[in-house]
Amino acid sequence: MSAITDIAAVRAWLGEARRIAVLTGAGMSAESGVPTFRDAQTGLWAKFRPEELATEAAFRANPTRVWDWYASRRDLMKAVHPNAGHLALAQFQQRYPGRLTLITQNVDGLHQAAGSVDTLALHGNIGDDIWLDPCQGAPGRAGVCEVTRAQPGRPPACADCGNLLRPGVVWFGEMLPAVALAAAEDAAQTCDLMLVVGTSGAVWPAAGLAHTARHNGARVVVVNPEPSELDGVAHALLRATAASALPALLADEITDTR
Ligand code: OAD
């Protein structure tokens, strides 16, 4: 079990690490005001049934309901800002270029807003629209559905073929974006240290990245105020929030002992 619990020890590991991977989940953005999914009181999946909102079948059955739910989440995202944890990660990347790969399950765009580079968004981005199906074209001409020509509606539809726009997030049962997942797996295999921040570890394949890192010899550090399914993988557990632990870990110059 994970014995190390103090920031100074983990900072020494950061100094030794040539390659650092960071895997973040909803807890990363909790202090920005974005609800998590599995918190018993405030989590989205405590209030809503994921199978009615976060699957392709749910969207096809009731596109307006699903579109409106994501629209309300998009409105919330417009009003939130990166917290001190997001900023600490982005500033570390700027101070040590190429050393830290950021992998997130979050769709809120807050890492990108904080200035993080090359964020691997495994579950997509809630601000993006994508087409539900391949374009069928208009009668007599092959077409490509164009977002700029979408007919306003909930959801908007292709003017030619009726195809629907949907949010650009990964729903249950869907494949993760292949390029981002491959890059994340590579980072997990080659890192010397992985920080796992604010995730329950309940959703795969994202959670598997921590196992991959450990299996390949990396030190694994879990940052989470509550127990998670990845605690058993960790060499160190920091029972703290993202916005308090990450600045303490990353803000000052680390002693580089690579
Ligand atoms: P969860 O809601 O499952 O877990 C959030 C975790 O954050 C919990 O372990 C909390 O203890 C922790 N937490 C809460 N506040 C925190 C804070 N201030 N600092 C650090 N940690 C904190 O969210 P995820 O693990 O991200 O999928 O869930 C994974 C996926 O399940 C999501 O990406 C989403 C969801 O269905 C898709 O949207 C495809």
Task: Tell me what you see in this structure.
- The model has no long low-confidence stretch (mean pLDDT 93).
- The strands form two sheets. The protein has a six-stranded parallel beta sheet with strand order 3-2-1-6-7-8, sandwiched between helices.
- The protein has helices spanning 7-16, 44-47, 50-53, 56-61, 63-78, 84-95, 110-114, 178-190, 208-215, 242-250, and strands at 20-24, 100-104, 120-121, 124-131, 165-169, 193-197, 219-223, 236-238.
- The radius of gyration is 20 Å and the shape is elongated.
- The chain starts with 6 loop residues before the first helix and ends in an 8-residue tail after the last helix.
- The chain is of the alpha/beta class and 258 residues long.
- It contains ten helices and eight strands.
- Helix 6 (84-95) runs parallel beside helix 10 (242-250).
- 2'-O-acetyl adenosine-5-diphosphoribose binds next to loops.
- 2'-O-acetyl adenosine-5-diphosphoribose (OAD) binds at residues 25-27, 30-31, 36-38, 43, 105, 107, 123, 169-170, 198-200, 202-203, 224-226, 228, 241-242.
Number of helices: 10
Rounded to an integer in angstroms, the radius of gyration calculated over CA atoms is 20 Å
Intertermini distance? 26 Å
Order of helices and strands: HEHHHHHEHEEEHEHEEH
Task: Please tally the β strands and state the result.
Answer: 8
Structural class by sheet pairing and helices: alpha/beta
Helix content: 25-40%
